[in-house]
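User: I've been trying to design a sequence by hand for this structure and keep getting stuck. Would you show me what you'd pick, starting by listing the structure so we're on the same page?

Assistant: Good idea, let's start from the same input. This is the structure you sent:
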């Protein structure tokens, strides 16, 4: 697998904002989208997102631990990509 975002239909953005938008576009239809994760703030120092509890619960109606892991892994992936920069 290539590290080049263009291999996944993304241009090579010049700014962090453009890079993040390209990452989000490349991930369209991915697990984060199905879980309802919405990125509110993104930068190299801070990422903020929300995820609904509804639809992501365990049998007792509480947020599923696996859903929490999906949220953490998603933000970790976006953060790593922002730190690495485009094409890495």
């Amino acid at each position: 697998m290539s590290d080049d975002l263009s291999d996944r239909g993304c241009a090579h953005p010049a700014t962090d904002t453009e890079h993040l938008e390209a990452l989000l576009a490349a991930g369209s239809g991915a697990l984060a989208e199905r879980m309802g994760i919405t990125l509110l703030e993104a930068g190299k120092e801070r990422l903020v997102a929300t995820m609904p509890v509804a639809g992501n619960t365990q049998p007792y109606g509480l947020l599923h631990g696996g859903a929490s892991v999906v949220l953490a892994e998603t933000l970790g992936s976006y953060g790593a990509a922002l730190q690495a920069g485009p094409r890495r």
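That's my pick for every position. To get oriented when you compare it with your attempt: The chain has three helices and two strands. The longest strand covers residues 38-42.
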